[in-house]
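ok so dumb question maybe but i'm new to this and my supervisor (M.) told me to 'just get the structure for Thiamine-phosphate synthase' and walked off. so i did the thing. is this what she meant?? sequence i used:
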Amino acid sequence: MTGQRSVLEGRDLDLTLYLVTDTAMCGGDDQVARVARAAVDGGATLVQVRDPRADDERILRLTRSVIRALEGTGVPVVVNDRVDLVEAAGAAGAHIGQSDLSPERARELLGPDRLLGLSCQTPAHVEAARALPEGTVDYLGLGPVWEQATKPDAATPAGPEGIAALVAASPWPTVAIGGIDASRIGLLPATGVDGAAVVSAVCAAPDPREAAATLLARWREAAERHTAQAPDRPRGEVR
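this is what came out, is it supposed to look like this??
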């Protein structure tokens, strides 16, 4: 099998605190960029612009506004699903799900230098990703971990144990998503996942910057405890 090497090999990809935007929760189109910048100021390390109800023009407008807001931060902005809009928006890449454009076609559209994330809910999804041509995928989004309300058609929650199994099978960096908030994020470092993706925990917060800072602090505290108490979790080997 191939497909285990990322196009970002040798470059940094920080998934620690991954913000997925929700336009309505942010307070409308004109607030998305503000929330994204506040989250980054609080410690968010990557931002995905997501609005499944928006047309192409609106997605372009939202994404460009977020990119402008994050100028100078070094934090990448990716687009959910709309791979064909990445270049026009000036985004760093895209994130796709199991029912979206195929990863091979997405990589073809993105070219070799942009990010591509892929959502996986089951071991079979991870195995299928491992069979992709080399350099197709850069990271995996795993989940949902817990019940959540932002994606009505989401799969059955895997729980931390299920996420740990997916992490162990993945040779790529991984980020967990689904029902993650400040009270739960500390359970995730022990699974071996590289970061946590959040939506409502930041987008619906009265103070997105403070919310992001709290999430990051609790992640780091738990990660430090886990590192001190346990050896590194084996990961899927590169073949």
